[in-house]
Amino acid sequence: MMRAAVLEAPGRIAITQVEKPEPAPGEIRIRVEGCGVCASNLEPWAGQEWMSYPGEAGGLGHEAWGMVDAVGEGVDAFSPGDRVAALSYRAFAEYDIASAGMAIRLPAALDSQPFPGEPLGCAFNIFRRSDIQPGQTVAIIGIGFLGAVLTKLATDAGARVIAISRRRESLELAKGYGAAEVIVMDDHWRIIEDVKALTGEAMCERVIECVGKQWPLDLAGELTGFGGRLVVAGYHQDGPRQVSMQMWNWKGIDVINAHERDPRVQMQGLREAVDAVAGGRLDPTALYTHRYPLERLSEALDATRDKPGNFVKALVTFG
Questions:
Q1: Does one domain contain both 131 and 243?
Q2: Which residues form the Enoyl reductase (ER) domain (predicted)?
Q3: Are 100 and 79 in contact (CB under 8 A)?
């Protein structure tokens, strides 16, 4: 048996005892060390019309890392005892199952470090889709975990990053990850004027929206210069969006939805993330600001929603 979190209803988590899953052919079982809490968890936590309750045991958890403790038939790439990050989907539990093709062995340089591979891999895939070039001005709207990592990647690529976020703590974080300019996200038209002033009215060659709400998407369109690229990295899952097609048409901008669902691309981003962190090119340690045991998953979800103090990302850890 194992402990697992079940989303019983909006705003209510139960910790239950369920049977430990068994790996099928081609699968591995992971004894979960930890799992990140994703902002995409917040809509199910709040309750949406399309959700059904209760959810699966361990459901919502998809940012896991841990030790392989069993392998299914035909798996020869992993052995019990291997430490891995995996793309799995029921990781708010002591054990989870992943396809062997959707896991990566973590090198010794990452021993004892948390490694929520899914969001780190997402950041690298978004960065690739953004096609950021040296000398460009890049606005990043929303500086949480994803925005901070992208700030670092864009700065290292030779771009000038303008970080835009609501909280002063987030803007200080962005400075620490290389942002050249920071703007408080509090007034739509003032932000536009500030970016005009910073760019000689040319606006930005690249704008990455990392919030997943209507206003940041509106703002992103305004900040994208003629012939630029608007990259939608925020996860918009709470309903339809309206966009200014007249403005998008007039500016001739490219609009990229940077959420990858091709498993090969997902794994490419994960491999790049492992190499970058293990090699010291990216240090995400400062982004893991809050840790909770499984029994306090509700608090972790609330903190992800409310962002108290210096909050960036919550991790649920075991043992």
A1: yes
A2: 11-316
A3: no
Judge if 238 and 305 occupy the same domain: no
pLDDT score recorded for residue 48: 79
- Structural domain of residue 70, as residue ranges? 2-106+284-317
Q: Answer yes or no: is 269 within a domain.
A: no
How many whole angstroms separate alpha carbon 62 and alpha carbon 73?
A: 24
What integer pLDDT is reported at residue 279 of this predicted model?
Answer: 97
pLDDT at 181: 98
| CATH number, domain containing residue 243 | 3.40.50.720
**Strand partners of residue 99:** 27
Question: How many structural domains comprise the chain?
Answer: 2
| 13 CB-near residues (< 8 Å, 6+ apart) | 5, 6, 7, 297, 298, 301
Task: Please state the three-class secondary structure of the chain as a single string.
Answer: CEEEEEEEECCEEEEEEECCCCCCCCEEEEEEEEEECCHHHHHHHHCCCCCCCCCCCCCCCCCEEEEEEEECCCCCCCCCCCEEEECCCCCCECEEEEEHHHEEECCHHHCCCCCCHHHHHHHHHHHHHHCCCCCCEEEEECCCHHHHHHHHHHHHCCCEEEEEECCHHHHHHHHHCCCCEEEECCCHHHHHHHHHHHHCCCCEEEEEECCCCHHHHHHHHHHEEEEEEEEECCCCCCCCCCCCHHHHHHHCCEEEECCCCCHHHHHHHHHHHHHHHHCCCCCCHHHEEEEEEHHHHHHHHHHHHHCCCCCCEEEEECC
pLDDT of residue 175: 98
Does residue 185 sit in the same domain as residue 229?
yes
User: In b/e form, how buried is each residue of 257-266, taking b as 16+ CB within 10 angstroms?
Assistant: ebebeeeeeb
61 located within any domain = yes
